[in-house]
Design goal:
The complex is a heterodimer.
Chain A (H helix, E strand, L loop, with lengths): L10 E10 L4 H11 L4 E8 L5 E10 L1 H13 L3 E7 L4 E12 L3 H13 L3 E5 L3 E8 L1 H12 L3 E6 L3 E4 L10 H10 L3
Antiparallel strand pairs in A: 1-3, 1-4, 2-3, 5-7, 5-8, 5-9, 6-7
Chain B lengths: L1 E3 H11 L4 E4 L6 H9 L5 E4 L3 H15 L3 E5 L3 H4 L2 H9 L4 E7 L15 H5 L5 E5 L5 H13 L6 E6 L8 E3 L5 H4 L3 H9 L9 H13 L3 E5 L1 H5 L3 H11 L3 E3 L14 E4 L6 H9 L2 E5 L19 E6 L13 E4 L2 H11 L6 H8 L15 H11 L5 E4 L3 H9 L8 E2 L9 H12 L5 E6 H7 L3 H6 L5 E6 L4 H10 L15 H7 L3 E5 L2 H13 L4 E6 L23
Parallel strand pairs in B: 2-3, 2-4, 4-5, 5-7, 6-7, 9-10, 9-12, 10-11, 12-13, 13-14, 15-16, 15-17, 17-18, 18-20, 19-20
Antiparallel strand pairs in B: 1-8
The chains are: A alpha+beta, B alpha/beta.
The complex binds thiamine diphosphate (TPP).
């Protein structure tokens, strides 16, 4: 038997949450982070495959202890059903970005289109002065694309945070002792 | 059956066996108070002087009776006046259902008169908040709110009804279902299913592991925390301690969870802990903490806390594990269930040597025989005068620590103190709640001259409801606890802590139609206590003590647990 040891190095962690789809739940979760002084790098909220249930994906930077504590605090909230800390090598992570680039002359346009192609991104809107690129990929790919397109002048941009899901048969619905332990304190039976 | 929405709210209280509520009316909650008018014979309403007083009273009622407290307030300032009380209940896991009413739907979000987003404000200081916009959901929300407040790790819940929801012409479907049966209805059921909740049972493997750890240990120490009190697990804890034959340290919140006069008790642990408790903590080889959260007042320096020991944490709330102190093993469950399972598996141990080594560090309580009145004389006189089992509600500061150090609490709910939030002004409200809930018990309210000023207007409530609460003011003319820090840590810069000012507390008591006496020595104190116990009304004893009295021992915040600044 040993005391729990935690990795003290700061890195990015992805938290995946299943919550009841009720008013105020997103703000309840988000507030928890600011209350405890943790900075959210990104947050994405949307449907899960069950009605009445929302799945939230949050990326934060911190050490393992801190991430475990914030996960613990999230799990305590009544509308929160599951919180899972996803590991980088056992999950897949993707982002989406819409980037509107200034492209007035011919050569610029060609270059932007070329870059978009290399990144398997699509041009989804064209005007006399602009091209809008829609890209999908992991964090580093999107980051690299934005950097390259930046050289032409980005007029505006909208980007999602990271979405993540586990590889293979594992899922957020898996039973675990940890999950049961948290539910104990929330028990209303 | 069709009933008025407001009727459903009150019927839902009756479902939960609620017969007492504390509160204060106002514009938006008028409908509910109108309904209450028809329920006067079933639900007793205690009108306090201030919503904060009502919130502490509901909390004190809950802590002392083990039932869920209920508190009403109106929107806006009524609701915000509750917040200190809500936070106090939250930090000490006290089950209270707060009910407020907000402006009507058509006024919502328009900065209307007395509109405030109280569900938003209360979010971080409650287990759950509910904003009710649809009257049909009233029974469901009420039942869920009570279930959430009372079960698992208990705590406060807030329900905010829009005024139009409570309009007297709104009728809803309602059927009376007692709480024992309604735990299976609607959203409670759904909540249980969606969270995969099962009827809780501690993990037996985890318990077996602890049984082995105990068998290997030679110098175990037990900590009795607030979870033992909230879970009313005192009998199981006592059996556990006696089987273990190990010393027991008690946290501030654990007061009453284990008999204070039991031969295994080492007294308080932490910042103002005894030599015995703190040394035991530093030398034990197995530390078993039950229902305690290792706050910074106990585990002053987490990295060196119980450094020679394996730490085992028993708690109902998984998020407490490894939060402040890293543990070696944990068991999740209610203190009652876990300890009952443990007790079945434990042999009777004999640890005479270790026990005596620790317990010999315990000094006898010294009652000094000075001319001038001292805190220990005051407390000793109270103890001698009151019947066994009397309830003590404290405020926050030196008198709080003195009271907890001095009295030997015997059962859960006997000590009411704001341990987690440290709320000055908690004591009188809590004492009112305790007296209302326990009319046959003597209730003592110990306070300081600073704290008493914060909520002394509740003497009006004491007078009106004829609650013979005895308030003992440790009047040192200063914010004693703060002064103590200034003395020890801030080179005696007594910045803004001297309280050489009005009122005269005896005259104040008299102004409220109560009795009072100023005492300056032990004999006067004794006489005052006798009078207080027989006068049949609220009584204020103004005890003049020296401003340089200190709480001993003391380990400063963040220091190693045996690095005493004061012995
Ligand atoms: C509402 C609130 N404000 C401030 C404090 C900080 N505080 C803690 S103890 C204390 C002094 C209390 O003085 P008094 O009531 O005279 O009690 P004593 O310590 O002298 O017994 C203060 C100001 C607090 N705990 N709560």
């Amino acid at each position: 038997m040993k005391r729990t040891e935690f990795d003290t190095q700061k890195k990015y962690y992805t938290l995946s949450l299943l919550v009841q789809d009720i008013p105020g739940v997103l703000s309840q979760v988000a507030r928890l982070f600011s209350r405890k002084g943790y900075n959210i790098e990104s947050i994405v909220s949307g449907e899960s495959n069950h009605p009445g249930q929302t799945r939230i994906t949050i990326v934060i930077k911190g050490d393992e202890l801190m991430v475990n504590q914030i996960a613990a605090q999230c799990r305590k909230l009544i509308p929160v059903q599951v919180v899972k800390i996803l590991e980088e090598d056992t999950s897949v992570q993707r982002e989406t970005a819409l980037i509107k680039v200034m492209a007035v002359d011919r050569t610029t346009r060609d270059e932007v289109i070329q870059i978009a192609n290399i990144f398997r991104a699509n041009i989804i809107d064209v005007s006399r002065e602009t091209l809008t690129v829609a890209a999908f990929g992991d964090h580093s790919k999107i980051k690299a694309l934005i950097k390259l397109l930046g050289d032409f002048g980005i007029l505006e941009m909208a980007k999602t945070g990271t979405l993540a899901i586990e590889r293979g048969r594992s899922s957020i619905y898996d039973e675990s002792k940890l999950r049961e332990e948290y539910n104990y304190g929330k028990n209303v039976l | 059956m069709k009933v008025r929405a407001t009727q459903a709210i009150l019927e839902c209280l009756l479902e939960q066996d609620v017969d007492t509520v504390f509160g204060y009316p106002g514009g938006t909650i008028l409908n509910l108070y109108d309904e209450l008018y028809h329920y006067q014979d079933k639900i007793k309403h205690i009108l306090t002087a201030h919503e904060q007083g009502a919130s502490h009273a509901a909390d004190g009622y809950a802590r002392s009776t083990g039932k869920v407290g209920v508190c009403f307030a109106t929107s806006g300032p009524g609701a915000t006046n509750l917040t200190t009380g809500i936070a106090t209940a939250y930090m000490d896991s006290s089950p209270v259902v707060f009910i407020t009413c907000n402006v009507s739907e058509e006024l919502l979000g328009r900065d209307s008169f007395q509109e405030v987003d109280i569900t938003g404000i209360a979010m971080p200081i409650t287990k759950a908040t509910y904003l009710v916009r649809d009257p049909q959901t009233i029974p469901d929300v009420m039942r869920q709110a009570f279930a959430v407040a009372a079960t698992g790790r208990p705590g406060p819940v807030l329900i905010d009804f829009l005024k139009n929801v409570t309009a007297l012409n709104v009728m809803i479907d309602y059927e009376f279902i007692p709480w024992t049966e309604n735990r299976n209805t609607d959203s409670i059921r759904e909540l249980a299913v969606s969270h995969g909740l099962k009827a809780p049972e501690p993990d037996l493997n985890d318990i077996e592991t602890l049984v082995e750890l105990i068998a290997q240990a030679e110098k175990p120490l037990l900590i009795c925390g607030g979870g033992v009190v909230r879970g009313r697990a005192h009998e199981q804890f006592r059996e556990f301690a006696e089987k273990m034959d190990a010393p027991v340290a008690i946290t501030v919140m654990g007061g009453g969870g284990f008999p204070g006069a039991h031969p295994l008790t080492t007294g308080m642990i932490g910042m103002h802990g005894t030599q015995a408790s703190n040394v035991a903590c530093n030398t034990c080889d197995l530390l078993i903490a039950v229902g305690c959260r290792f706050s910074d007042r106990v585990a002053l320096k987490p990295t060196t806390f119980a450094q020679q020991a394996k730490i085992v944490h028993i708690d109902i709330d998984r998020s407490e594990i490894d939060k402040n102190v890293r543990t070696d093993h944990h068991i999740i469950g209610s203190a009652k269930r876990v300890l009952a399972e443990l007790n079945q598996r434990l042999p009777q141990y004999d640890r005479t040597e270790w026990k005596e080594k620790i317990l010999s560090l315990l000094e006898d309580q010294q009652i000094d025989e000075q001319e001038k009145l001292t805190p220990s004389q005051v407390l000793d006189t109270i103890e001698q005068a009151v019947p066994d089992g009397s309830i003590v509600a404290t405020d926050v500061g030196q008198h709080q620590m003195w009271s907890i150090q001095h009295f030997h609490f015997q059962y859960p709910g006997q000590l009411l103190t704001s341990g987690g939030f440290g709320t000055m002004g908690f004591g009188l409200g809590a004492a009112i709640g305790a007296k209302v809930g326990n009319p046959d018990k003597v209730v003592i309210h110990t306070t300081g001259d600073g704290c008493f000023r914060m909520n002394c207007h509740e003497l009006a409530t004491v007078q009106y409801y004829n609650l013979p609460i005895i308030t003992v003011v440790f009047n040192n003319g200063t914010l004693g606890m703060v002064r103590q820090w200034q003395h020890l840590i801030y080179q005696e810069h007594y910045s803004q802590t001297t309280l050489d000012r009005a009122p005269d507390f005896v005259k104040l008591a008299e102004a409220y139609g109560l009795k009072g006496k100023r005492v300056t020595n032990r004999q006067e104190m004794k006489e005052a206590m006798e009078e207080a116990l027989t006068c049949g009304c609220g009584y204020v004893i103004d005890c003049i003590i020296d401003m340089d009295e200190m709480v001993r021992p003391m380990v400063p915040g963040g220091a190693h647990i045996t690095d005493f600044l004061l012995k």
